[in-house]
């Protein structure tokens, strides 16, 4: 049985459900259009189950849900990490509270976008990289230890479930603590990249700003044109978080 923990009741949640739960023939290699076409063919009974599952729960109904089901599939979203000091993107109605994340095409094709991202990330990583697991993460560890959780899938990229001690975790959107070269595929720890960023951009190292959802910070309307973006030490390719 599915248990969804998070505050973002968005299409992104629904997409995760489509891949992992709705239609067994859907795989992560399917195009979104093909998968949505198959989901549209679900029978009404299956859709009704999903509608019932996605209804918001009170604490009492959550307790009842857990006690009534011995094998639970958990899907977590940004709301699971807000008590750790990591903001979320959407409000309770699914509306954006801030600018949307940087898209892959913009990141890869525009140096100014990469300068802005890595400058904000240098500042934000000081908090994001040291955010502690909160009670929600710890409660899920206890639930897994009792043998109740079959698998935990998270949309979050903060690795706080693993930091808390959960073992069976699938990072649906990747992980922010790893940086990957888009050319040769070499990976390095985000802490290594942070040292490079700090050494190359000393004036940015002392800046502080409010945390943002993706490990960056709201540094405001700043000139990023002099920010030095690191490249792969092996092939000089473009580095990006492994998300």
Using only C-alpha atoms, the radius of gyration works out to: 20 Å
Strand order of the biggest β-sheet: 1-2-3-4
Sketch the topology as an H/E string, one letter per element.
EHHHHEHHHEHEEEHHE
Structural class: alpha/beta
Quote the distance from N terminus to C terminus.
Answer: 27 Å
Question: How many DSSP-defined strands?
Answer: 7
User: Poorly predicted ranges (pLDDT <50, ≥5 residues)?
Assistant: 7-54
Structural shape: elongated
SS summary, helix count: 10
How would you classify the quaternary structure? single chain
| Main pleated sheet | 4 strands, parallel
Description:
Strand 5 and strand 6 (187-189) form a beta hairpin. The model is unreliable at 7-54 (pLDDT under 50). Helices cover 39% and strands 13% of the residues. It is elongated and about 55 Å long. It is built from ten helices and seven strands. It starts with a strand and ends with a strand. With 243 residues, the chain is of the alpha/beta class. It has a four-stranded parallel beta sheet with strand order 1-2-3-4, covered by helices on one side. Strands 6-5-7 form a three-stranded antiparallel beta sheet. Helix 1 (11-22) crosses helix 2 (32-39).
Give a brief outline of the structure.
The chain has helices at residues 11-22, 32-39, 44-53, 59-68, 104-109, 111-128, 135-145, 160-164, 190-200, 202-205; strands at 2-5, 72-76, 149-154, 169-171, 175-181, 187-189, 239-242.
């Amino acid at each position: 049985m599915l248990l969804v923990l998070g505050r973002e009741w968005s299409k992104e949640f629904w997409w995760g459900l489509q891949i992992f739960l709705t239609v067994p023939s859907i795989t992560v290699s399917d195009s979104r259009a093909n998968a949505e076409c198959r989901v549209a063919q679900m029978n009404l009974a299956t859709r009704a189950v999903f509608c019932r599952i996605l209804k918001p729960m009170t604490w009492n109904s959550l307790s009842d849900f857990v006690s009534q089901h011995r094998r639970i599939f958990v899907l977590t979203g940004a709301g699971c990490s807000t008590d750790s000091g990591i903001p979320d993107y959407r409000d309770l109605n699914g509306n954006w509270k801030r600018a949307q994340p940087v898209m892959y095409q913009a990141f890869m094709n525009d140096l100014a976008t990469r300068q802005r991202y890595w400058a904000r990330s240098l500042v934000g990583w000081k908090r994001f990289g040291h955010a502690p697991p909160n009670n929600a993460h710890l409660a899920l560890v206890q639930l897994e230890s009792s043998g109740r959780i079959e698998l935990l899938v998270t949309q979050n990229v903060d690795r706080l479930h693993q930091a808390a001690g959960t073992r069976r975790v699938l990072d649906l959107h990747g992980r922010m603590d790893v940086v990957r070269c888009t050319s040769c595929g070499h990976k390095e720890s985000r802490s290594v990249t942070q040292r490079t960023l700090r050494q190359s951009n000393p004036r940015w190292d002392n800046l502080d700003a409010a945390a943002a959802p993706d490990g960056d910070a709201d540094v405001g309307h700043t000139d990023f044109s002099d920010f030095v973006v690191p490249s792969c030490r092996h092939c000089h390719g473009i580095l990006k978080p492994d998300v």
